[in-house]
Design brief:
By secondary structure, the chain is α/β, with parallel strands linked by helices. The chain folds into two domains: 7-125 and 261-288 and 320-334, Rossmann fold, CATH 3.40.50.2300; 127-257, Response regulator (Rossmann fold), CATH 3.40.50.2300. The chain is built from eleven helices and 13 strands. The chain has helices at residues 35-51, 66-78, 95-103, 127-141, 158-171, 189-202, 215-224, 238-246, 263-276, 297-306, 329-334, and strands at residues 7-11, 23-29, 54-61, 83-86, 107-111, 121-125, 145-152, 176-184, 208-211, 232-235, 254-257, 284-287, 291-293. A seven-stranded mixed sheet has the order 1-3-2-4-5-6-12, with helices on both faces. Strands 8-7-9-10-11-13 form a six-stranded mixed sheet, with helices on both faces. The relative contact order is 0.17.
């Protein structure tokens, strides 16, 4: 667990004269050095600014575990947060501190991954479907037989567990398709790159790679190792989307399963609506992922028109989640909270 605690306030003054209520937003993120999480935080800042009702955003942003996240959430409670948006490190371990917050009237929204505390709102991609859709595409691409590598995320976190569940369910329909190697990348570039190098060095025979969103790094390793491509499944990360759109002629076939980081901004919109009682949302909201592959005309068109050289290569190409988010693409890129 990293001992350092980053507590950063963006903006900070409430509106004068008592003419409008201004809220304090807390954010708890437990994985740094990851473009997806960075974009998630930027979407929260952008939505806070666009809402016009937030005075400041306090971000607890460090790589840590459930115990560290509990401490961070307690600090956010003490800092006067009215809404806390969390990307949870554990499905159940945060329940007590979430309940402490909601008992004080603080709205807690878990994004990207689920928690089991019923007083919290949850808005996330359907992560079981994410795993299932990508695995099913890969199985069909391989004709229902062969060997694949499964490159997972962080062991034990809800999204990884759910995606693995979806993959396992999909592969149950293809008894002649086996996972010959499973890794945990921690959703980090360097470990994923080293794992691919080790797999190449080991001589393991495989016909495809399913990744939990560490896709472009895998493609990079095929290229730097001068290995022929096999079908690769990943997420709608900007660099991978571009690779699928531009490397088809070099033998790359693959599919991107959508997983929008602006679910963070959507979570804040849900939290503010609950706080202001302007809209009643279900406590659990699932977004439905899509598959964009470079083996069909529709998929190739979607990939070609979606990658964006103005975005960070490790951001997702998704910049909003309608109808929840109301900021612009430039707001997201600017990554500025209210001022």
């Amino acid at each position: 667990m990293v001992a350092a605690f980053a507590l950063v306030a963006c903006g900070g003054t409430s509106s004068g004269g008592g003419t409008a209520t201004k809220y304090v937003v807390g954010v708890s993120n437990t994985l740094t050095g990851n473009g997806w999480r960075e974009e998630m935080i930027c979407s929260i800042k952008a939505q806070a600014k666009a809402s016009g009702v937030v005075s400041k955003v306090i971000v607890a942003n460090r790589t840590t575990d459930a115990a560290g996240q509990i401490a961070d959430i307690r600090n956010l409670i003490s800092s006067g947060a009215n809404v806390i948006v969390i990307n949870p490190s554990d499905r159940d371990a945060l329940n007590s501190v979430i309940k402490q917050a909601t008992d004080k009237g603080i709205v807690v929204v878990a994004v990207d991954q689920a928690v089991s505390e019923p007083s919290a709102y949850v808005i996330s991609n359907d992560q079981v479907a994410y795993g299932k859709l990508g695995a099913d595409w890969l199985a069909k691409k391989l004709g229902g037989k062969g060997s694949i590598i499964e490159m997972r995320g962080i062991n034990g976190v809800p999204a990884d567990t759910d995606r693995h569940q979806g993959l396992t369910a999909a592969l149950a329909n293809y008894p002649n398709l086996k996972v010959v190697k499973e890794t945990f990348t921690n959703w980090s570039l360097d470990p994923a790159a080293q794992q691919m190098k080790d797999i190449f060095s080991s001589g393991i025979k495989f016909d495809g790679v399913w990744t939990s969103g560490i896709d472009a790094t895998v493609v990079d390793q095929f290229q730097s190792s001068n290995k022929p491509f096999v079908p690769i499944v990943g997420a709608d990360n900007n660099k991978f989307v571009k690779q699928l759109a531009t490397l088809k002629d070099k033998g790359l076939s693959g599919a991107a399963v959508t997983n929008p980081p602006p679910v963070g901004g959507a979570g804040l919109a849900v939290g503010l609506a609950a706080l202001q009682k302007t809209h009643s949302y279900e406590h659990v909201i699932h977004l439905t992922p899509q598959v964009w592959d470079n083996t069909t005309a529709d998929g190739t068109t979607q990939l070609s028109k979606t990658f964006d050289d103005s975005l960070d290569p490790y951001y997702s190409v998704a910049f909003d989640v309608k109808p929840y988010t109301t900021y612009t693409k430039q707001d997201l890129i600017s990554c500025q909270g209210p001022s």
